[in-house]
Every structure is written in C-alpha cells, then in structure tokens.
C-alpha cells in the first residue's frame, strides 16, 4: 500500500501549493521522508548490501528511477514555459523558471542542489524538487551505511533530534526546521528505525493494519485542517507543533502499511503509486497553466477557484503520468528489475518483493 500512500501525499502537496489547504504540503514532505528512510534502508539491507558493487547497483537503480521520467517532465515544463512566457511563470511562483547559469541548470538537471538550503537555489524548473535533492542526499548516506545497524541508526536519530531541539530553542524559522537539508535527518532516521524495529512493533497489529492505516490517514488530513483553524486562535507557532505531530502520524502509517499483505491489491497499489512522482515534479507548471491561461489567476490564493485549479491539476498530472509511465518508465523499469535481481542475495528475492521494495 505504499504506492497509494505516496500518491495521496503528492496530491496533498498540490492542494498545499495551490493554497487550498496550506499545512498539507509540509506534512506530506515529512511523510515522504519517513517512507524513504524505511524503504531505502529496506532495499540496502535486503537487496543490495553494503559492498562496493551493492552501492553501485543501488546508485544506478535510484538514478534510473528518478532521472529519465524527470527529464521527460522537464521537457514538458520547458514547452509550457515557452508557451505562456517566463514572466507569467515567475509571477505564479517566483522560484520557477529556466536557469541562465550553467551550474544552476546542471543542478536542476541532476536533481541535486549544492546548498544546505536547496529551496534557495533559484530558479528551479520544477520548484518542488528541492525536497528530492534532500532525498538524494540521504539516499547516498544510507547507501554508505548510515542506517546499517540499529546502534548507528539510533545515534543518527539522537543527533537529528538534537538539531531540531536546538532549532526550536534558538527560535530559528522554517528555513532550519523544514527547508534545511539537515532538518531531513529526523524523518529519515525515524523511517530507518521503523525498519529495524518493525517485527517487534508489528506484533500487535495483525489484521488491524489496514483499518488502522485508514484511520491514521484521516488523522493526517484532520491535523492539517486543525492547524489551519488553530492559527486564528492561538499565539504560538502551531504550524511547527503540527509538523512534529505529523511525524508520529506518518511513522505509524508507514508501520501499518508495511504490515498489509493483500496480494489482490498489489497491482492496483502499484498503478496508483505510479502517479506520485510525476504529479510531484509536474504540478507547479500544470497549476500555472490552468491558473493563468484558463482562470486568469496570476498567483496562488485561497478561493473557490483554487480548489478547481487543484482538482484540474491533479487530473492533468495523472494523464501526463500515464504517458510518461508508458513511454519512459516501463522500458526503464525492465532494466531496473534486472539490476535488482542481479544485486539481490540468494533467498532474499521473495522477502523483498513481499515488502514491495521500490
């Protein structure tokens, strides 16, 4: 069920950015990071191993997963920018545009921004990719063994927690508790800890995993709504509090989803999950086109129109995703599958498939 979860998180990001429900996107990114911490630790432990060859195969597999369809999405984005004009794009999102420096363009192309604050690297052709840059950073650290054992992972978690405690005590802003690359250490380490302790933590779940996951996702949505309402009635940073409460919700969700064994749902879950990545990297330009060319909206705002822009953005991204999946992802996936099977130790193939290793 990880595929469905990923796509719901991507849709949450869309509704956040189009200003339908603002805290949604921040919480979704935290969920993405926790899930990635779990899954990347899983595949390193069960599929690739920590030898030089294993790390090389992991890196190749991640590159094949992220880059080809991203480049396809970039091509579509560049065509849209050429159509509606860079000024309209910049007005809708000041961070979006075509870089005029070679270094910045290459960072956009490779999905890795050379800054501890990747959000500050601008322009970005696909603005939301700052978070993917954070993911790539932790993919590399996990491949080098940052979550190899429980002891190392607990040390990582404690250091990450110390960062966030320091940020809160010093009164630092969202740049440090959300956008900074080191802020991502806490959710990633939480995901890795779930992997290391999943057997003991999973014992009470049994057949309750699916209904509990549904209830937890309802809590995820309710938390975002609650923060939106609470902002008008309290004088402390309720968004910061909600961000950390969301870690607990998403961690419990990942644990529950890792225990759902419904073979009949596997194909549907994968199909739904394929919409996630494409929606995430395409949604800003698609929303810009709908807003500026159809609704005459020049910048995101909270209105009834925003809801329809968000809905049309989701539908359009799903349509474009089907094309990218058919013509780019499916051919690449056949090669990725061969890489995984070549790297996987004997006896581990079935176990990894049951866990839906990406």
UniProtKB/TrEMBL annotation:
Q: Which GO terms describe its biological process?
A: polysaccharide biosynthetic process
- What residue intervals traverse the membrane? 20-43, 64-84, 128-146, 153-171, 177-196, 208-227, 239-260, 281-299, 305-328
Q: Look up the record and report any one GO term of the cellular component aspect.
A: membrane
InterPro entries from the xrefs? Answer: Acyl_transf_3_dom, Acyltransferase_3
Query: Does the record's keyword annotation contain Metal-binding?
Result: no
Q: Which domain of life is it from?
A: Bacteria
Segments forming domain Acyltransferase: 5-325
Q: Which GO terms describe its molecular function?
A: acyltransferase activity, transferring groups other than amino-acyl groups; hydrolase activity
What is any Pfam family matched here? Acyl_transf_3
Keywords assigned by UniProt? Acyltransferase, Hydrolase, Membrane, Transferase, Transmembrane, Transmembrane helix
This protein's name: Peptidoglycan/LPS O-acetylase OafA/YrhL, contains acyltransferase and SGNH-hydrolase domains
């Amino acid at each position: 069920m990880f595929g469905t979860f990923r796509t719901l998180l991507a849709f949450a990001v869309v509704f956040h950015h189009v200003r339908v429900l603002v805290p949604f996107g921040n919480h979704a990114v935290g969920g993405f990071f926790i899930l990635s911490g779990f899954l990347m630790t899983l595949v390193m432990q069960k599929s690739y191993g920590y030898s030089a060859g294993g790390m090389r195969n992991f890196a190749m597999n991640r590159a094949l997963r992220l880059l080809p369809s991203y480049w396809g999405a970039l091509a579509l984005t560049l065509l849209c920018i050429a159509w509606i004009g860079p000024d309209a794009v910049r007005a809708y999102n000041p961070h979006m545009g075509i870089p005029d420096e070679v270094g910045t363009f290459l960072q956009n192309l490779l999905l890795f921004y050379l800054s501890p604050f990747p959000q500050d690297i601008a322009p970005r052709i696909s603005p939301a990719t700052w978070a993917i840059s954070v993911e790539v950073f932790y993919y590399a650290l996990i491949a080098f063994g940052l979550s190899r054992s429980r002891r190392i992972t607990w040390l990582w978690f404690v250091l990450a927690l110390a960062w966030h405690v320091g940020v809160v005590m010093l009164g630092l802003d969202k740049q440090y508790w959300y956008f900074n690359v080191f802020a991502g250490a806490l959710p990633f380490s939480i995901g890795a800890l779930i992997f290391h302790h999943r057997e003991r933590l999973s014992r009470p779940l049994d057949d309750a995993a699916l209904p509990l996951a549904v209830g937890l996702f309802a809590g995820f949505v309710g938390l975002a709504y609650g923060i939106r309402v609470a902002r008008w009635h309290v004088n402390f940073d309720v968004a910061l509090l909600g961000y950390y409460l969301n870690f607990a919700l998403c961690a419990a969700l990942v644990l529950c989803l890792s225990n759902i064994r419904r073979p009949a749902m596997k194909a549907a879950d994968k199909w739904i999950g394929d919409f996630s990545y494409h929606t995430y990297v395409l949604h800003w330009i698609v929303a810009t086109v709908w807003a500026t060319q159809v609704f005459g909206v020049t910048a995101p705002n909270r209105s009834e129109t925003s809801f329809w822009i968000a809905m049309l953005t989701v539908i359009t991204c799903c349509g474009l995703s089907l094309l990218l999946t058919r013509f780019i992802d499916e051919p690449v996936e056949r090669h990725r599958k061969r890489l995984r099977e070549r790297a996987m130790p004997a006896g581990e193939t079935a176990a990894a498939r049951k866990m839906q290793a990406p």
